[in-house]
């Protein structure tokens, strides 16, 4: 990965003879999945608008016209039973029948972060069935790739309970269906790439001892405090029994991770292992809540970043890639990121951009931990990364302003001098670091204009900041002190 220059990507393959005709990319969208919505929270982030905005941008841009539009299908109970218990299936099947709104709210309260309404059963069956439909057609060779634009999402749903906005484990069900029920299609090894900002606990638990499935999840972990919480998303969770080594977790220590951080993980963990695993088909649990502006994720991946992440996988499995929507709650970033990915499936050529920032120091630390843990299973990861590579890093510094009710974190990247402007991105986190909220554009403008005052850090924390800048070899102690003093007297 070239961090200071152009990213070398196979996205440039569009102008050859094979690209004269669009690949056969399948799309599934069904408005009936919009019938699932929260009864007691009009502003719930997992809203029907999520799939509507994707469908609208694909149509308004003309992209949908270049794809094969498929009809959504209900999953069958015997397909769902490949992953879920009978009691779980009966719960979701019957939840929308004959229950009052108040009872639905009470039932949902028994579970972790889910809601039910009169449209939940239909939407859940359509979501799981639609992922199966796309996957089967790609496995048969009727499609080259596809995107199931579905909700509710699935990767948190466990064998016996819904969880985290998820009712059925859509990708896990489709994976088991191909491996167990359609073995004649020749899909014997499946790679699941979960780039949702939250750990895919349900998918992991389904395949934890299954060597036919390589599960890869990159997610915020924050020492187990970020949703879904616990140690399940730790890098030491690598599978068990025959599945040992086939579960890969890349747990971010902090929010704010950007394109450079994700692409470093692709280049130094995912891609080397994928080459050795050599999958027959790839599922992508395509959550876009690590995107810029997402109210739950607190990261900063751009649509371009997602397009490169996807493109780096296009050379595997003959391009047989099935994307299934998971999270993503900033409607603008969600729509643009999904569009960028479908363009990759269509072999469109994006604008080649430069990454003018390096991965965080914490990113290189996590990558090295993951590689060390997995090296016993994947010897290709045993080599130490060159010092010259990992020394190219951006420090991550948290700035606490005592007169504000929020915590502001600033990414210090490419500081020119103590008093010059530098590239920054800001996000606001609530008191609970597990639930970050991004600044709105208007908030950022208010800080830049001076409408919102930038408060200086207290003396004790200023000393901590100075120490961090000095140890990070960004500034001298004198420069760092002057920089903090000067910065707190001016608009952002």
From TrEMBL:
Pfam family, one: Hist_deacetyl
One Gene Ontology CC term in the entry: cytoplasm
Domain Histone deacetylase: 44-345
Names of the cofactor(s): Zn(2+)
GO biological process, one term: epigenetic regulation of gene expression
Domain of life, per lineage: Eukaryota
EC number: 3.5.1.98
This protein's name: histone deacetylase
């Amino acid at each position: 990965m070239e961090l200071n220059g152009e990213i070398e990507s196979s996205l440039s393959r569009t102008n050859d003879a094979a690209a004269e005709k669009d690949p056969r990319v399948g799309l599934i969208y069904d408005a009936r999945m919009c019938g699932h919505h929260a009864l007691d929270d009009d502003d719930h982030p997992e809203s029907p608008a999520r799939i509507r905005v994707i469908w609208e941008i694909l149509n308004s841009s003309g992209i949908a016209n270049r794809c094969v539009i498929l009809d959504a299908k209900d999953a069958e109970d015997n397909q769902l039973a490949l992953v879920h218990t009978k009691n779980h299936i009966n719960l979701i099947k019957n939840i929308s029948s004959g229950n009052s709104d108040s009872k639905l709210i009470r039932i949902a309260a028994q579970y972790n972060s889910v809601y039910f309404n009169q449209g939940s059963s239909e939407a859940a069956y359509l979501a799981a069935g639609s992922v199966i439909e796309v996957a089967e057609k790609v496995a048969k060779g009727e499609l080259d790739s596809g995107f199931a634009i579905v909700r509710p999402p699935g990767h948190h749903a466990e064998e016996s309970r819904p969880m985290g906005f998820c009712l059925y484990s859509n990708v896990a069900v489709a994976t088991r269906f191909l491996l167990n029920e359609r073995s004649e299609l020749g899909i014997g090894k499946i790679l699941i790439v979960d780039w949702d900002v939250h750990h895919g606990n349900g998918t992991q638990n389904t395949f934890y001892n299954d060597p036919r499935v390589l599960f890869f999840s990159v997610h915020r972990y924050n020492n187990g405090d970020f949703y879904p919480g616990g140690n399940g998303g730790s890098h030491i969770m690598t599978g068990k029994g025959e599945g040992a080594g086939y579960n890969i977790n890349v747990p971010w220590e902090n929010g704010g991770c950007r394109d450079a951080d994700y692409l470093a993980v692709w280049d130094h963990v995912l891609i080397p292992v994928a080459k050795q695993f050599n999958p027959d088909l790839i599922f992508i649990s395509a959550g876009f809540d690590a995107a810029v502006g997402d109210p739950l994720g607190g990261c900063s991946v751009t649509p371009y970043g997602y397009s490169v992440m996807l493109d780096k996988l296009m050379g595997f499995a003959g391009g047989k890639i099935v994307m299934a929507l998971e999270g993503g709650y900033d409607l603008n970033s969600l729509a643009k990121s999904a569009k960028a990915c479908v363009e990759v499936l269509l072999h469109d050529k994006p604008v080649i951009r430069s990454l003018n920032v390096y991965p965080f120091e914490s990113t290189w630390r996590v990558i090295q931990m993951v590689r060390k843990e997995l090296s016993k299973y994947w010897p290709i990861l045993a080599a130490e990364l060159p010092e010259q590579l990992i020394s190219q890093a951006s420090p991550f510094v948290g700035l606490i302003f005592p007169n504000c009710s929020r915590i502001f974190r600033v990414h210090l990247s490419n500081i020119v001098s103590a008093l010059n402007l530098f590239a920054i991105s800001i996000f606001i986190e609530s008191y609970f670091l597990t639930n970050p909220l991004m600044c709105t554009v208007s908030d950022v403008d208010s800080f830049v204009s001076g409408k919102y005052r930038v408060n200086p850090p207290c003396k004790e924390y200023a000393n901590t900041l100075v120490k961090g800048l000095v140890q990070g070899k960004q500034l001298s102690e004198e420069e760092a002190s002057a920089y903090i003093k000067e910065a707190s007297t001016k608009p952002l």
